[in-house]
């Protein structure tokens, strides 16, 4: 405050426009970097004027004045050492919240499905006994898991993305666009088009059903004179994995939706946001990072992903078993991530005499049968009887174990995998 003595008595200063411009110019004269958040205001009194200059703490320290960083050491000011600047850099990182953790200004608790959060989501994350004894308000409970901003009294972007009643109203690209083209490029005739809108808690189950009903096709192929087998164009679980990754890793600040373009010879999945953080073209897919850690954790809590960094390898394995070529990942685009999947080569193989199509496609169909059967707890013996299998070790290693590793099945006694009382149940919602 200029124009006031230390004892609070006005000094009689008269603040004119020239003085205000001079003080306000300190902000942008280039000596202070990064530029401070600063406001200047004049108050007029009979005894004199007061010029109030308010400077907010920097969110991205260290702050340098003429190239040097100053710190307070007791009663005196001094230049920061390299080690002291490193402490300020660590503080800077802690202030830099990801986009999904930031408040969604203009929204309120009425804009999210609070009943779903309270009755469905929280019980999946928190023990029921803890929830019963928790007397905090819903806002405080959501703030504890980064879904509500107490300071600004509004949900975070993650809450809108996950549970928003009209998510695309606040985040315009928060939907999935599917287009089926008759030919091999976007200039060909459009056979089908669909937009799947809503929050992730409503989009994700719709995507699972949509992949199975609108994209996956199956037809019988002769493998001998008297026998046929069902051949799928794409493995359902592989496409599901790719779409879950697109929803989890996309850049929700972009207005571009997640795009699923199906052509006659391939499927392209494109989402906004290239490789993020520690992930680089040279280390993909062995190293991953999370652009939306709160969204990723919520999807893990709802059993859609497992966050083990095994998704890409699982996709490759499932495509190979189904007879599909290796997927192609385009990581060269700076602002987008693209994956291209071609249909099963088994559909193009000609069978005559002893030439047969790849029987590995049957494995995907059998795994889907296991998942459908295990909506209730089942023993391995019951699964074998349902599938008509005779060899216990083959049924477990070929079908049950891969589903457990992928997070699709879970054991009722996980600490004793070989227990005689072991049962299996589907984990997907």
Could you explain how this protein is built, in words?
Mean pLDDT is 84; it is low at 349-361. The strands form 6 sheets. Strands 10-9-13-14-16-15 form a 6-stranded mixed sheet, with helices on one face. The protein has a 4-stranded antiparallel sheet with strand order 1-4-5-6, with no helix packed on it. By secondary structure, the chain is of the alpha+beta class. The protein has helices spanning 17-24, 82-95, 114-125, 128-133, 138-144, 157-163, 167-170, 200-215, 236-249, 293-301, 311-322, 361-373, 380-387, 392-405; strands spanning 32-33, 38-45, 48-55, 64-65, 68-73, 76-79, 148-149, 154-155, 175-181, 190-197, 218-222, 228-232, 258-262, 267-272, 328-330, 336-341, 409-411, 424-426. The radius of gyration is 29 Å and the shape is elongated. 34% of the residues lie in helices and 20% in strands. β9 (175-181) and β10 (190-197) form a beta hairpin. The longest helix has 16 residues, at 200-215.
Architecture blueprint of SSEs:
Layout: H1 17-24, E1 32-33, E2 38-45, E3 48-55, E4 64-65, E5 68-73, E6 76-79, H2 82-95, H3 114-125, H4 128-133, H5 138-144, E7 148-149, E8 154-155, H6 157-163, H7 167-170, E9 175-181, E10 190-197, H8 200-215, E11 218-222, E12 228-232, H9 236-249, E13 258-262, E14 267-272, H10 293-301, H11 311-322, E15 328-330, E16 336-341, H12 361-373, H13 380-387, H14 392-405, E17 409-411, E18 424-426
């Amino acid at each position: 405050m200029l124009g006031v003595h230390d004892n609070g008595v006005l000094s009689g200063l008269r603040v004119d426009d020239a003085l205000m411009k001079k003080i306000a110019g300190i902000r942008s004269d280039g000596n202070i970097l990064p530029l401070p958040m600063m406001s200047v205001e004049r108050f007029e009194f009979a005894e004199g004027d007061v010029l109030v200059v308010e400077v907010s703490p920097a969110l991205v320290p260290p702050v340098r004045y003429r190239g040097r960083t100053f710190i307070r050491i007791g009663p005196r000011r001094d230049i920061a050492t390299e080690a002291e600047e490193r402490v300020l850099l660590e503080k800077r990182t802690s202030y830099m919240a990801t986009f999904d953790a930031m408040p969604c200004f203009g929204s309120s608790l009425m804009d999210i499905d609070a009943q779903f959060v309270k009755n469905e989501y929280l019980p999946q994350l928190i023990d029921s006994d803890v929830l019963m004894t928790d007397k905090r308000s819903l806002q405080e409970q959501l703030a504890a898991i980064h879904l509500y901003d107490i300071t600004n009294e509004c949900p975070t972007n993650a809450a809108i993305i996950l549970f928003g009643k009209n998510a695309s109203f606040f985040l315009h690209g928060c939907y999935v666009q599917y287009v089926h083209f008759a030919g091999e490029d976007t200039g060909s005739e459009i056979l089908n088009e669909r937009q799947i809108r809503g929050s992730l808690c409503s989009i994700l189950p719709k995507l699972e059903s949509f992949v199975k009903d609108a994209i996956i096709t199956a037809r019988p192929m002769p493998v001998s004179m008297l026998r046929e087998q069902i051949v799928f164009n794409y493995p359902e679980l592989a496409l599901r994995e790719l779409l879950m990754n697109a929803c989890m890793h996309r850049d929700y600040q972009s207005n571009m939706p997640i795009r699923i373009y199906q052509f006659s010879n391939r499927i392209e999945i494109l989402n906004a946001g290239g490789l993020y953080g520690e992930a680089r073209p040279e280390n993909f897919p062995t190293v991953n990072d999370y652009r939306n850690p709160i969204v990723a954790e919520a999807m893990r809590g709802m059993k859609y992903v497992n966050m083990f960094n095994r998704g890409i390898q699982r996709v490759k394995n499932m495509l190979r078993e189904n007879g599909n070529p290796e997927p192609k990942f385009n990581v060269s685009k700076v602002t987008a991530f693209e994956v291209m999947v071609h249909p099963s080569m088994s559909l193009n193989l000609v069978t005559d005499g002893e030439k047969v199509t790849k029987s590995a496609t049957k494995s995907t169909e059998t795994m889907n049968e296991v998942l459908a059967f295990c909506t209730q707890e089942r023993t391995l013996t019951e699964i074998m009887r349902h599938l008509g299998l005779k060899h216990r070790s083959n049924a477990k290693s070929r079908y049950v174990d891969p589903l457990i590793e992928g997070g699709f099945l879970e054991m009722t006694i996980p600490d004793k995998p070989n227990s005689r009382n072991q049962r299996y149940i589907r984990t997907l919602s």
